[in-house]
Amino acid sequence: MKIFESNGKINFVDDNNVFVGFDYSQCCCESFGYAITSEIPSGELEYNMQQEHEIDGYQFDRDFCQQCEHGCEESRVTFRMIKDESTLFLTLYNAHNGYYGHGFEMTCGNESLHDGTL
Fold it and tell me: Which of 59, 67, 107, 110 is 20 to 30 A from 92 via CA?
């Protein structure tokens, strides 16, 4: 798994060329980002909680995309990453006033698997 950040976007790409992209440009005073955790986050995320996990060799589960919306205060989407018997979760989040959105997409080659706006 590789992470690339450039031109207001952050991209996560596994060895099977499954790609998760996220609009990472700051619009105003919203709090947004990503977290890599060993469990699916429940409740409100602690912002800037990016935990240190080694992600080399992890592959995205193409069929797992769990979107959770909490009114206009917080939106998030979680993707599962698998390596052997281990599982990690990539969660993209945005807490905002309902005006500024951050798009995301999951693709494999030219095939769109999941997309939306947080």
Answer: 110
Residue whose C-alpha is closest to residue 44's, from 55, 58, 31: 31
Domain ranges of the chain: 2-117
pTM tops 0.90 = no
Contact (CB, 8 A) for 89 and 43: no
What does the CA dihedral 38, 63, 112, 34 come to, rounded to 10 degrees? Answer: -10
59-70 and 111-117: which strand pairing?
unpaired
Cβ neighbours of residue 97 closer than 8 Å, sequence gap 6 or more: 29, 30, 72
Q: Which helix (H) or strand (E) holds 59?
A: strand 59-70
First to last CA, the chain: 23
pLDDT score for 9? 92
Our CA angle for 58, 62, 64, nearest 5°, is 95
